[in-house]
Amino acid sequence: MSISRTLPDGRRQIFGFLLAGDFAGLEAGAVYGFDAEALTDVRACRFERPAFEAFIRDNVDVALRLVHVASNERSQAARHEMLLGRKTALERIATFLADLRERSGERHLRTHPLSLPMTRAEIADYTGLTIETVSRVFGRLRDDKVVEMVGTGAVRILDPALLAVFAESST
């Protein structure tokens, strides 16, 4: 699932990709400021706000878990700001792949190959790059034997250490 916002002129910024087990829709206000789009089949639970807030009051362990979720989301947002503001195209794609691999592993999802249910356009909207640049960087990572494409919906990370180096500083 992608979380995004679209400007009046049609430009879209994707803020993140949710994985199985992630929590969506935790907003303080009455109106949600983001769009959510399913990229694969999704099974979701929906809670009415008053009932959910009552449940949280009665279940401290769930409330603490949501604090943890919110903290992780803030950390992820800060990493995304750094990705958009300071990283090169190679660093952006490498960071995107390394983060997705780490998050997938934490949720016990398949990482070899790593599922990429998003399109190149969606990756571009997340990384602030053009589709052509995303494709060019994937080509470089493939040529450098860092990744191997598995069809259009997955990538095999062949050299996680080199991917981490690229994520931190392209040379």
Report on the structure:
With 171 residues, the chain is an alpha+beta fold. It has one domain: Winged helix-like DNA-binding domain superfamily/Winged helix DNA-binding domain (Arc Repressor Mutant, subunit A, Orthogonal Bundle). Helix content is 50%, strand content 14%. It has a three-stranded antiparallel sheet. A three-stranded antiparallel sheet has the order 4-6-5. Helix 3 (89-106) crosses helix 6 (160-168) and helix 4 (120-127) packs across helix 5 (131-143). The mean pLDDT is 89.
SSE topology sketch:
Elements: E1 2-6, E2 12-17, E3 35-37, H1 49-58, H2 60-86, H3 89-106, E4 114-115, H4 120-127, H5 131-143, E5 147-150, E6 154-157, H6 160-168
Antiparallel strand pairs: 1-2, 1-3, 4-6, 5-6
Helix pairs in contact: 3-5, 3-6, 4-5
